[in-house]
Amino acid sequence: MTKILFICHGNICRSTMAQYVLQDMVNKKGIADKFYIDSAATSYEEIGHGVHPGTRNKLSSVGIPCGNHKARRMTKQDYSEFDYIIGMDTANIRNINRIIGDDLEGKVYKLLSFAGQMGDIADPWYTGNFDATYDDVLKGCKGFLKEIGIQ
Fold first, then answer.
1. Can 98 be counted among the known catalytic residues?
2. Which Pfam families match (predicted)?
């Protein structure tokens, strides 16, 4: 089973969006049993809060089910439990590395790197643009599946 942990600052917008987008993709391919997909934050700010209404609304508008994830903070232990730890932006990667220490096993990635881009996924908490965030998340998730050999 491949275990993926998506990370953003608060775990209510981008990382949960990626979690549910990728879950929907593997569900539709009939391979959900081969994956465990979760998300977490690098901060403590939103711990215990549910998925942001903007993320929930965007996912609903494209027919992707959104569960009842509650924000949690990433732990050092997550590094040993997940195969991929995928941040949304450069600041997330920096904060992930502060939490885990050295990425000795090469598990930490930025989501858009799977789409051949080095850019950041904009945080809709600040931009208000959940459509643009969704487009980038979708691009990154498609690239991720292709990277691991799933078309």
1. no
2. LMWPc
The answer to whether 49 touches 71, Cβ cutoff 8 Å, is: yes
Helix, strand, or coil (residue 2): strand
Closest CA to 123 of 22, 9, 21, 1: 9
Question: Quick check: is 38 catalytic?
Answer: no
Domain of residue 22, CATH code: 3.40.50.2300
* Number of compact structural domains in the chain: 1
Domain containing residue 37: 2-147
Place of tokens 């403590």: 44
For 57-110, the pLDDT digits (tens) are 999 999 999 999 999 999 999 999 999 999 999 999 999 999 999 999 999 999
- Which are the contacts of 116, defined by CB distance < 8 A and separation ≥ 6? 143
Residues 6+ apart with CB under 8 A from 28: none
Does the annotation mark 33 as catalytic? no
Taking the alpha carbons at both ends of the chain, their separation in whole angstroms is 17
**CA 79/CA 84 separation, integer angstroms:** 8
